[in-house]
Amino acid sequence: MPAIRRWRSRLDNQEREHQEWRDSREVVSFDDEPLVLVDHEDREVGFLDKASAHVGKGTLHRAFSIFVFNAKGELLMQQRAPGKRLWPGFWSNTCCSHPRRGETIDNAIHRRLSEELGLQCGLDYLFKFEYQAQFDADGAEHELCWVYAGRSDDAPTVNVNEISGLRYIAPDALDAEMAANPGTFTPWFKMEWERIRRDHAHVFAPRSAG
């Protein structure tokens, strides 16, 4: 496996591999939070609680995905917490979630990045797309997802209710791992990464100091 910089939460207070990482236990996800239902053109058509929106084949709702890269152009990836209803333990992009009823996308992306990772950085809109992915007979994602990218070299404060592991990985190493172990990554992340690689490579170009 390619060399990667890793951090995993230690819920039993054992020594961490990287002491610079900090953690938080704030509860930031709720089954009854109202999500924004949309049509295929991303027009609002109603609202539905998060739990119900992911039942069966899922009800189309607005979502977002965030990709944060460091100065080297490495992607900060998260491993989803084991308590997640959908795709627990899978590797995914830096952060993903939903705007709530009455909340703008711009507010939602910065709120969630802070809630999950304690990070604040500029985020640029890349594209949006619709997808449906079935996890099991009882649950799925069906989202119209807005995708953003940003840069940060700050150390995260990891919300252990949302995230069980973090790592930085270079784009070429990520491509190799995806090819070797595609079943360990969330479906939306794989779709988004393919398009970022193809159309938005500038977002992970290494940046020189100063």
Automatic annotation (TrEMBL):
One of its GO terms (cellular component) is cytoplasm. One of its GO terms (molecular function) is metal ion binding. The active site is at C96, E143. It catalyses: isopentenyl diphosphate = dimethylallyl diphosphate. Mg(2+) binds at E116. Its cofactor is Mn(2+); Mg(2+). This is Isopentenyl-diphosphate Delta-isomerase. Residues 59-191 form the Nudix hydrolase domain. Its EC number is 5.3.3.2. The keyword Isomerase applies. SUPFAM superfamilies: Nudix. One of its GO terms (biological process) is dimethylallyl diphosphate biosynthetic process. HAMAP family: Idi. It comes from Dyella dinghuensis. The keyword Metal-binding applies. Binds 1 Mn(2+) ion per subunit. Belongs to the IPP isomerase type 1 family.
